[in-house]
Amino acid sequence: MMTQSEPFLQLLIPLLAGGWALHAHRLYQRLHRGRRDPLTGLLTRDGWSRAADRAIRRHRRAAVLLADLNGFKAVNDRHGHDAGDAVLAAAGERLAAWCGRNDVAGRLGGDEFVAVLADDVRLPDRLADLAELLRQPVHHNGHELRVGASIGAARLAELDTPTLAAALKAADTAMYRIKGRTRGGRRLLAPTLATVRRHIQQRFRLAV
Fold first, then answer.
1. Whole domain around residue 168: which residue ranges?
2. Catalytic (active-site) positions
3. Which residue, 166, 208, 172, is CA-closest to 188?
4. Which of 60, 151, 178, 195 is the most buried (most CB within 10 A)?
5. From CA 133, how far away is CA 61, in angstroms rounded?
6. Treating both helix axes as pointing N-terminal to C-terminal, what angle do 164-178 and 45-58 enclose, rounded to 10 degrees?
7. Which residue in 91, 80, 93 sits closest to 141, CA to CA?
8. Residue 186's domain is classified under what CATH number?
9. Beta strand 63-70 with 104-109: parallel, antiparallel or unpaired?
């Protein structure tokens, strides 16, 4: 025999279930948006780091790259923040298009971008293609905005410790050691261990 409260419960339970499902969906959307940069649509630092760690474990021939836009501050100062945002958005779109199906692109912040590549085959040529792509002008409010790109990369297989942190450090070293020495930072790879050691020794001698 059905009590008076049972019809009410039969109506309430689906409503509660639907409410929790909607809440879970909205929570997922907020978490997903939190891992995406709203300007470029690329993964943020935290989201990219998680995805990059998974990619490195899955692909033995992975490589990590860092890209810094040369001349971005001048564009921002001369044409305003809207123009700077247009350049960043274009850079993010081009990096994402350049990446392969198993590669993962991200934005660390400012004008710094990052990617993990599933395969390091033809890495110097791929970096040259990316540098050329990022140098292409961005058209904004009647202006042709141009920036360059310094790109450093590290092959995981060539590192003593094949971790994401070590790869980022090596790629960062490669990027800054040659930044400003080549147009757009073409064909940049992490320096060999011997080169890094000589560089450290030279800095130490200068400090002493």
1. 45-207
2. 111
3. 172
4. 151
5. 24
6. 110
7. 80
8. 3.30.70.270
9. unpaired
